[in-house]
Design a protein that fits this description.
Elements: H1 3-6, H2 11-40, H3 48-75, H4 79-94, H5 104-132, H6 139-173
The protein binds magnesium ion and fe (iii) ion.
C-alpha cells in the first residue's frame, strides 16, 4: 500500500470498482426478486392483501432494477457481465422459494422476510461504499430503494400474525 492510499484503505479507484461489483450483485439480486415474486403471485388467491402488496413490490423491484441500470451505465459497465451474474445467482436464492406445500404461505413469508433483510443489508452497504468512493450522486437512488425494502420487510413482519391466523382458519376448513 502506498502512502497516498493508506489513509483511505482501498483508495477512491479501488472503492469505485467495489461499488461496481456491489451494483452488479444488487442487480442480480433484484432479478432474482422479480422471479420469486412472479412465481408466488398466482398462488396467493387466498391471501388477496399479500397478493396486492407483492404486486406493488414487483413494480417497485422493476424500478429498482432500472435504478441499478442507470448507475451501472454511469460507471460504463458491460451489460453482458450483469446478465451472467444474474444467471449465476439464481441457484442460490431460488432455494428460498418453496415448492407447493400445505404451509407454503408461511414458508414463503419467512423466505420473503429473509430476502428483504438481505436487500436491506446490501443497500446499506452500497450506500457506505458509494460514500467512500465519492459517488454521492448515487445516494438518492440507493436510499429510495433501501426505503422500499425496509417498508416491504416491515409489512411482511407486521402482517405475519394475521397471515398465520388466516392460514389456520383455511386449514381448519379443509
Ligand atoms: Mg429489491
Ligand atoms: Fe425487495
Amino acid at each position: 500500500m502506498t502512502e497516498a492510499t493508506m489513509g483511505t484503505g482501498a483508495g477512491r479507484e479501488g472503492a469505485r470498482s467495489i461499488v461496481a461489483t456491489g451494483l452488479r450483485n444488487a442487480h442480480a439480486l433484484e432479478k432474482q426478486a422479480i422471479q420469486l415474486i412472479e412465481r408466488q403471485l398466482p398462488r396467493l388467491d387466498d391471501y388477496p392483501e399479500v397478493q396486492a402488496r407483492m404486486r406493488q413490490h414487483l413494480q417497485e423491484t422493476r424500478a429498482q432494477e432500472e435504478r441499478l441500470d442507470r448507475m451501472l451505465d454511469r460507471l460504463g459497465n458491460d451489460r453482458s457481465v450483469v446478465k451472467d451474474m444474474a444467471l449465476e445467482f439464481m441457484g442460490n436464492m431460488a432455494a428460498m422459494a418453496h415448492m407447493p406445500a400445505d404451509d407454503e404461505i408461511l414458508k414463503n413469508s419467512f423466505a420473503n422476510l429473509a430476502f428483504e433483510s438481505y436487500e436491506i443489508a446490501a443497500y446499506t452497504s452500497l450506500l457506505a461504499m458509494a460514500e467512500e468512493a465519492g459517488m454521492g450522486e448515487f445516494r438518492p437512488m440507493l436510499e429510495a430503494t433501501l426505503q422500499e425494502e425496509h417498508a416491504m420487510a416491515d409489512w411482511i413482519e407486521t402482517g405475519l400474525p394475521a397471515v398465520t391466523k388466516r392460514f389456520l382458519s383455511l386449514a381448519g376448513r379443509a
